[in-house]
Amino acid sequence: MTQTINSNLAFVFPGQGSQKIGMLAELASANSLVEETFQEASEVLGYDCWQLVQQGEQEDINLTERTQPILLAASVAIWRLWQQQGGPTPVAMAGHSLGEWSALVCAGAVNFADAVAIVRARGAFMQQAVPVGVGAMAAIMGIEDQIIIDACTDSANGQIVDAVNFNAPGQVVIAGDAEAVARAISICKKAGAKRAVELPVSAPFHTSLMRPAADNLAEMVEQTTFAAPKIQVVHNVNAETESNPEVIKTLMLEQIYKPVLWVDCVNGLSARGAEILVECGPGRVLNGLSKRIDRNLTSLSTDDVASLENALTSV
User: Fold this and answer.
1) What pLDDT does residue 1 have?
2) Is the entire prediction scored with pTM above 0.70?
3) Phi–psi pair at 92, nearest 5 degrees
4) Kindly report the CA angle at 96 between 94 and 101, in degrees rounded to 5?
5) Cα separations (Å) of 294 from 13, 203, 248, 275?
6) Which ranges of the chain have pLDDT less than 50?
7) Separation between Cα atoms, residue 217 and residue 80, nearest integer Å
8) Of 134, 176, 188, 190, which is least packed with CB atoms within 10 Å of its CB?
9) pLDDT at 56
10) Strands 298-300, 5-13: parallel, antiparallel or unpaired by DSSP?
């Protein structure tokens, strides 16, 4: 089937935090392609990830090395439904953190099974890089980015704390050593932050503390075949697109320990002509961020039958 390209359309893929027990159940009951996609992932993982997602416990799917492959499978399943039902091809894609792997698979840059194996290892290496309890992440809301960046600098005291997710205007996530994060939270509150809340995550993602995870993953990524994306992917690290497969490999290792420039990524999609963003995966987290980044963007969801049908008819 030849897909038409919609020059006003971009796809965005969610990262960790969008997983929940029972996700995609309605879509799966309506179309076997969903379970078939999860079955492909299960063959790589060695366990039934569809059963885990439908009947497991939330704490089980919150384990990073499980979260990452099941979210990848969910996004790829919805993308396959979109294609099966004749949805147009977007002009560009972007994914938030882990979601960037989903974008690369859907853009044809890397094989799905290879990506499942990589993101499982990515999750395991990220968890191993910093012992549980040593690191922390926190969302800071309601003050300017530069104030947060300066607070991190002032809070380090020989430890690591950085602004790591620029998610929306007035919403930045910081991460690093737990004590340094606590100091930065205190400074941000004194500087007028409306909210500063520690996040329920098991490691300080996207900080230099994650460098060992990237180093450990490097050989696996290097040995995997990548291709030039058939659809442009705007990368987290620099909010630019890249066609060279070897450079893409480097960017995907760097994004483990460098900040997610999500505001710049969404603006990059807009600059490439996107007026409609379809969130391809469970949940609506990126929809909410998109509205805060650019009110002119139309955001659509795909995680149940009605939402998917609405998205298909809206583009």
Assistant:
1) 42
2) yes
3) -160, 165
4) 70
5) 17, 30, 27, 10
6) 1
7) 27
8) 190
9) 96
10) unpaired
The set of residues, in sequence order, having a beta carbon less than 8 Å from that of 288 and lying 6+ positions away, is: none
Q: 156-178: string of b/e by CB count within 10 Å (b at 16+)?
A: eeeebbbbbbbbbebbbbbbbbb
Q: Which two tokens stand for residue 49?
A: 């990830």
The residues assigned a catalytic role are: 97, 206
- Asked if 259 and 210 touch (Cβ cutoff 8 Å), the reply is no
Q: How many other C-beta atoms lie within 10 A of the C-beta of residue 54?
A: 16
Task: Output the CATH code of domain 135-201.
Answer: 3.30.70.250
Does 135-201 match 5-129+209-314 at the fold level?
no
CB atoms closer than 10 angstroms to residue 304: 16
d(CA 290, CA 262): 9
Give the pLDDT of residue 170.
94
Query: How many Cβ atoms sit within 10 Å of the Cβ of residue 313?
Result: 8
Of the candidates 169, 110, 113, 108, the residue with the CA atom closest to the CA atom of residue 141: 169
Per-domain boundaries in the chain: 5-129+209-314, 135-201
pLDDT tens for 193-232 read: 999 989 878 789 999 999 999 999 999 999 999 999 999 9
